[in-house]
Amino acid sequence: MRVSRLMLVTLRDDPAEAEIPSHKLLLRAGYIRRVGSGIYAYLPLLWRVLQKISAIVREELNATGALETLLPQLQPAELWQRSGRWAGYTDGEGIMFHLEDRQGRELGLGPTHEEVITALAGDLLRSYRQLPVNLYQIQTKFRDEIRPRFGLMRGREFIMKDAYSFHADEACLRQTYGAMDQAYRHIFSRCGLRAVAVEADSGAIGGSASQEFMVTADAGEDLILASGDGSYAANQERAVSLAPEALPLPSGARSAGAGEALDTPGASSIEQLSQAHGIDPTQVVKVLLLLARFEDGCQQPLLVSLRGDQQLNEVKLVNAVTARCGADHGTLLELGPLTQEAAQREGLTTLPFGYLGPQLPDGALAGARSWQPRFLRLADVTATALEAFVCGANAMDRHLVGASWGALCAAPDSLDLRSAQPGDRCLHDPAQRLEASRGIEVGHIFQLGRKYSAALEATFTTEAGQEEPLWMGCYGIGVSRLAQAAVEQHHDANGICWPTAIAPYEVIVVVANAADPVQLQLGEQLYGALQAAGVDVLFDDRAERAGVKFKDADLLGIPWRVVVGRGAADGQVELVQRAGGERRDLAVAALQPLLLEQLAAERRGLAAA
Fold it and tell me: What are the residues whose beta carbons fall under 8 Å from the beta carbon of 493, sequence distance 6 or more?
């Protein structure tokens, strides 16, 4: 391809809309263009990158025996209603674009395809003899992001590979899950990415086990917590750890009963309480008041107890609340702090915000117009482990010192609700500490079990002649996100440094002075010879200054640059490796053999990795 025919428009300055390096560089180098909020056109250069990534994905998935298909983007609401996910995906902050057709039927633009594929499997897979089956597709998905940002990282339209496997038993599911894990590792390695596998929360997809694949990068939105010995890694949403030891209360303050009252005017926060009264946060049980809203309209007040130095993990809390209330009230639509203003609107004016204790009686909700009349009481294990503690007295400007569970009130259900933090001790080895890094999620695999097959009545006949729901797995890769993640991991001050396997072109031939017939002729000769040798080559034949061409070549990030300049008359060219900037002068006759050897070595290295 000739640059003069490439429709290439590069930018010298960073676009105002771009926040992270990869987003800036993809816009500046002419790989993408913004069409609307969270909506981008993939221009010819990026489309070549996406095709190469897709080809690697196909090769690895096909090698596992997976079958490629293509599912409809427009999905009937009825399928999602049967699975119980329609309300959660369309109400409140739901991420599904949805609409009505001319007949008033509700439809959604697919953010994911569990319902569609499960319904198809229920029709097509009727016997254990047909199993296992693994179907995958590569296509556009849609999500109504509240705040689209970072270009292709969090867009409203994106390209994704999703696969769904069906099995006769859980052992077979686990076997395929393991095979997909290995396939994913091969895919990311072949794409030239440093990716780590971490334990993850299954989120709205659900399932018994899941694992994310993270490309490590400073601009990553996800916090990865991993042990120094490499034996444990998890997304912070899922991570577990041992909290720091709590400081015991002084012996004189341990009443081991309902606690002694302490006047604490103006000390409505942990920090204020600590500063004014010398109380360590680890000695405090703080109580959070929240409100959960469910699909059936139920509004459930929550009273959540945490140790004063710990932070609530909202994902763990959502999972806990869903486990306790989902069967009775359907999908959890919203969960957030219960504010004083919201309580007043409900008709409650006496809740002692800032001085709440775990012993707050259900009677405090008396008179509420639309809330459930009892609290759902939960506590983190760090709170219930305290033998004696400080807590709110449920009266303004007052706390209790030396309270204990049982004497003050019954201990709530004890769960892991805290966010693990960098520096925490590891469960598998307390001598190890969690270390933090940031990552970009590019893949996620799930063991779904029978959640969807049971809901959509997708059953098969077992060898014993019984009807049972299919066992399912789900496996996703963000193809367009992976392309940008590669840029985030592979760039420098001058532009992109594409890994060769997914670069739009492997080599760019730059004629320094297109007005020089000797240089132009040699450039044409090299371009044709490399094409004939099967090299993906780009030829910069523009009548631009050499400096402009070199800057564009650096910005585009093509792995190898051949410069045809003043040495052309003597049969000399310059070969530049984009990553690292190594340069060497070569005789024209030596160029092609060396380039082919380098490209072959890179391919071998990626295959071995």
Answer: none
> CA nearest 491: which of 546, 556, 426?
556
The share of the chain scoring above pLDDT 90, in percent, equals 80
- Output DSSP code: residue 420: P
- Interior CA angle at 324 toward 323 and 330, to 5°? 75
Q: Is residue 210 within 8 Å of residue 202, measured between CB atoms? A: yes
pLDDT of residue 252: 64
* 560 token code pair: 């190898």
Q: Which helix (H) or strand (E) holds 472?
A: strand 471-478
Alpha-carbon distances, residue 329 vs 94, 368, 482, 522, 552 (angstroms): 17, 19, 38, 74, 58
Q: How far is CA 111 from CA 72, 75, 89, 275, 465, in A?
A: 11, 10, 9, 49, 36
Helix (H) or strand (E) holding 332: strand 332-337
For residue 61, the one-letter residue type is L
Q: Token digits for 54?
A: 């897709």
* pLDDT value, residue 369: 85
Q: Give the Cβ contact number of residue 238 at 10 Å.
A: 20
Q: Within a 10 A sphere around the Cβ of 163, how many other Cβ atoms?
A: 27
For 340, the enclosing helix (H) or strand (E) is helix 340-345
- In whole angstroms, what is the distance from residue 91 CA to residue 109 CA? 15
Amino acid at site 289: L
pLDDT of residue 225: 93
User: Of 183, 184, 174, 239, nearest to 447 (Cα)?
Assistant: 174
Which residues of the chain are modeled with pLDDT < 50? none
Beta-bridged to residue 449, according to DSSP, are 472
Q: Are strands 376-380 and 413-415 parallel, antiparallel or unpaired?
A: parallel
pLDDT of residue 254: 60
* Amino acid 376: pLDDT: 96
Nearest Cα residue to 56 out of 501, 369, 464: 501
What are the tokens at 92?
């409140």
- Per residue in 585-594, pLDDT (tens digit) is 999 999 999 9
Q: Which two tokens stand for residue 226?
A: 């991993």
For residue 88, the model assigns a pLDDT of 87
Residues with Cβ within 8 Å of 466's Cβ and at least 6 positions away in sequence, in order, are none
Tokens of 478: 């963000």
| pLDDT score for 202 | 61
Report the distance separating Cα 27 and Cα 40, nearest Å. 10
| Residue whose pair of structure tokens reads 């909020």 in the numeric block | 37
Q: Which CB contacts under 8 angstroms, 24+ apart, belong to 583-592?
A: 588/522, 588/526, 591/526, 591/562, 592/526, 592/529, 592/530, 592/533
Do residues 108 and 96 touch, judged by C-beta distance below 8 A?
yes
CA 314, 320, 325, 331 dihedral sign is positive
For the chain, the straight-line distance linking the first and the last C-alpha, in angstroms and rounded, comes to 30
Q: Where are the beta strands (DSSP E) in 351-455?
A: 376-380, 389-392, 398-403, 413-415, 434-449
Number of Cα atoms under 13 Å in the Cβ half of residue 358: 31
Cα–Cα distance for residue pair 535/18, rounded to 1 Å: 33
**pLDDT of 203:** 61
Q: How many whole angstroms separate alpha carbon 455 and alpha carbon 147?
A: 32
The torsion angles phi and psi of 328, rounded to 5 degrees, stand at -90, -30
